[in-house]
Amino acid sequence: MLAVCALLALAGSAFAGVKNSDCLDCHGDNTLVKTNAAGKALSLFVDAAKLKLSVHGTNACISCHADVTAKHPDDNKSIAPVSCVACHARQTESFQASVHGLALKAGHDDAATCKDCHDSHEIISDRSPTSPIYRTRQAETCGQCHDKEARDWLASAHGKAVESGSLDAPTCTSCHNDHQIRALKGTSARTISEDVCAPCHASGRLNTKYNLPGDRVKTFLESYHGLASQNSDALVASCADCHGYHRVLPSADTNSPINKIHLVETCRKCHEHANAEFSQGKIHVAPDGAAAGTDFGSRLNNWVRRVYLFLIFATIGGMFAHNFIIFAKKVAARLRHEERPVVRMSNSQRWQHFVLATSFIVLAVTGFALKFPDSWLARILGSNEPFRRWTHRVAGIVMLLIGAYHLVYLLATRDGRKLVADLFPVKKDAADVWQAVRYLGGWSKERPKIGRFGYAEKMEYWAVVWGTIIMGATGLAIWFKIDVTQHLPRWVVSVATTIHYYEAVLACLAIIVWHFYHVMFDPEVYPINTACIDGRISEEFQAHEHPLERPENEPHIEPPGESESGKEI
């Protein structure tokens, strides 16, 4: 880019008749000055030797001062400020979005420009120790406008580390960025912790190298302050509110705001009535007690945590076991004593339903654990990615196999052909939907009368068929993405991944909100519709829910009441 600019500049200067030597005839004089509007004398001297050694040493003067003509300075026209955008468009765009660039746009002429940080004619690479933006000279450069902040940083642990030669210690641009300089005042605690402090203090490499605690960002985010900052509340204390902004010192330093002699004062910045006891509370304590400390209060707190964890597991585990046994006994009692002569599901259909339901649940658990590896689902599965991945794949294969078996069942068996015929949508289903709308809306007292399957059951069945095809196709595309991309564009896999995830969300919500209600939580079948266990329902339930169905080899049963739309088996 610089070479191109140099060639353009040389061509331009030749055309204009202005050479570098013409400019240096005057600007090579170290006594040449100009008085600005404020009456301050500004040097116009350009050191030719230093200019030649700068990164712009091969450029012509006119490449930057494009408005200079051969008539200068006799035309008494002031030279316009240099624009760097011609060669440095990306950096200029970033600068214009910075706190300095925005200040200039707002009319603050004293805001820093490119030359205030990079110099004007003696621009040196930032990798050179003599550059004003080299890491050891940034405080000096920024301190021209931000004197107090520069002095505080030099006295901080960060500044001392930079002075000692550390290449990892943060400088001004490490926290504020380089061209798109950001003002951090008023920034949320979460942004400061994650964007400013975390790059160093959440780095395993740096924490190991410098023997620093590796959990400081994590435990802050899990503390009251960190949790309160999730909604970007700028009033919540951030890392800097306790540790300081520029003058960051270790807690052992008596000048540090987190040293024990200053803790009360630091806490009182937010907590007006804080005392010495209040200030002893620990911020960086993980919920699991890993950073509990060795003092009596910390050890006691850790033991209380352990006792409560035992009580929770023992109490809730006992409650669960107690209620599960009751649930199982009540279901068994219903199966033994309730007369249910009407066969609703055959043995084959029940096994197909069981395998489908089991594979679906495994797919849902492992799939969301893969999508959210930090979730409790992933932890339940041992946070083992290969285990989650292969369990998910095996469950997917099982679902596809049961789907294929179901297709054969529908085509090759009498019960299967009758099932698909009864589940096939007909004109009456549309009338039932309209009647259900009228009934549920209170415009009619009559519920739609349905046969073996109503519109709700048919929609769910065909949704399962559609979902199995979609999830199977997209799942296989994701699994065998290398093979897929041998013949199709890579975006096919990306689109398949998106479809796979959102179809899974849709399916799981539909099962929980719709299917579970009708087969478990509906008061008329609670705690579960036992047809999925032994395939049978009572004559009363049959007449109530499916009044238009005449069971085979049985007389037609007159319904005792109206049939309710949407009820499942």
Describe the protein in words.
- The chain has 569 residues and is mainly alpha-helical.
- Among the domains are: 87 residues, no CATH class; 206 residues, Transmembrane di-heme cytochromes, Chain C (Fumarate Reductase Cytochrome B subunit).
- Helix content is 55%, strand content 2%.
- It contains 28 helices and 4 strands.
- β1 and β2 form a beta hairpin.
- α21 packs across α22.
- It starts with a helix and ends in a 24-residue tail after the last helix.
- The C terminus is likely disordered.
Uncertain runs with pLDDT below 50, 5 residues or more? Answer: 7-15, 555-569
Query: Distance between the terminal alpha carbons, to the nearest Å?
Result: 74 Å
Shape: elongated
CATH topology of the domain at 340-545: Fumarate Reductase Cytochrome B subunit
How much helix is in the residues? 55-70%
Level-2 CATH architecture of the domain at 340-545: Up-down Bundle
**What structural class do you assign from the helix and strand content?**
mainly alpha
How many beta strands in the DSSP annotation?
Answer: 4
DSSP strand content: under 5%
The Rg value, from CA coordinates, equals: 38 Å
Spatial sequence of strands, sheet with the most strands = 1-2
Write the CATH homologous superfamily of the domain at 340-545.
Transmembrane di-heme cytochromes, Chain C
Largest β sheet strand count, sense and barrel closure: 2 strands, antiparallel
By DSSP (H or I, 4+ residues per run), the number of helices equals 28
Instruction: State the CATH class of the domain at 340-545.
Output: Mainly Alpha
Nearest-integer average pLDDT: 87
